[in-house]
Design goal:
Elements (H helix, E strand, L loop, with lengths): L2 E9 L8 E6 L7 H11 L4 E5 L8 E6 L4 E2 L3 H13 L10 E5 L2 E8 L2 E5 L11 H11 L8 E4 L6 E5 L3 H5 L5 H4 L3 E7 L8 E7 L3 E4 L3 H13 L6 E6 L7 E7 L5 E16 L1
Length: 278
């Protein structure tokens, strides 16, 4: 029975136990995909990450990401938490200032600034407005009237996110969605706070049936940032809040650099460390 190093990391955390927890298993080469899936189901977190030696010569490490039900090609908070955990266990990047993660969507660049780690948002697999029938389904599931959704867009960088914008953050926070009515739609909802607020946007993420509401979602925020900044709705640098309704205080730091890359960052803290038995 393998004993592997294990950490549980609080990702996008602004205060203790306020972000999105991630289970990280190191040295997972000896595990089968079935063992990984079984362990992820047991942890019952939104995602569990398994770190392996890279296959790509340009990568520093490889990660496989599992929800309790299936494997994901990419996800944001596991990308940040995996990088933080890899560095905390003595990982040394091949290039100064840049960490390169290999996952199922390819290579993802990351950078570290103290306790904050940021990843370069991957390209969208699908963009553009949502189909009218999807918008109608979302309106029904959120209890909205025609016209309450002021903008909508695909934000799909791997997990098939669809995103809608409401008039303001207050309306986003007031939502009580009918999860069953969403069907298979993985939905992000965003609304702006008044000028001068601590954060510029409130974000909520719904991915039923496995994750009714996600505490803080890096992949969604990456897709939304590409949409909002590209459309001139958001500035090149902003902070999004997420998890408020479910008692979290996630903070997602978004920045477009001079080369046009969009970085999604957050503070990470290890809350549990030890070994896991398989």
């Amino acid at each position: 029975m393998p004993e592997l190093r294990f950490q549980q990391v609080d990702v996008f955390a602004s205060t203790a136990h306020s972000g999105n927890p991630l289970a990280v298993v190191h040295g997972a080469e000896r595990l089968s995909a079935e063992q990984m899936q079984t362990f992820a189901r047991w942890t019952n977190l939104s995602e569990t990450a398994f770190l392996l030696a890279p296959r790509d010569p340009g990568a520093d490490y490889r990660v496989r990401i599992f929800t309790p039900a299936y494997e994901l090609p990419f996800a944001g908070h596991p990308t940040l938490g995996s990088c933080f955990a890899w560095l905390a266990m003595g990982g040394r990047p091949r290039r100064d200032g840049t960490i390169v993660q290999e996952c199922e969507v390819g290579l993802v660049n990351l950078r570290r600034d103290g306790s904050r780690v940021a990843f370069a948002a991957p390209p969208l697999r699908r963009s553009g407005p949502l189909p009218a029938e999807n918008v109608a389904t979302i309106e029904r599931a959120l209890g909205l009237g025609t016209g309450d959704i002021v903008a909508h867009q695909w934000a799909d960088n791997g997990p098939n996110w669809q995103a809608v914008m409401l008039a303001d953050a207050e309306r986003v926070l007031a939502l009580e969605p009918d999860m069953a009515a969403l069907g298979g739609i993985k939905l992000g909802v965003v609304g702006a706070f008044p000028t001068g607020s601590e954060c510029q946007f409130e974000v909520r993420a719904f991915a039923p049936p496995n994750i009714p509401e996600d505490p803080v979602t890096g992949s969604l925020n990456a897709g939304v940032a590409r949409w909002l900044i590209g459309a001139g709705i958001a500035p090149d640098r902003y902070v999004a809040a997420q998890g408020t309704v479910i008692g979290r205080r996630g903070r997602v730091h978004v920045e477009r650099d001079d080369e046009g890359a969009i970085w999604i960052g957050g503070d990470c803290v290890t809350r549990i460390s030890g070994t896991a038995s398989f």
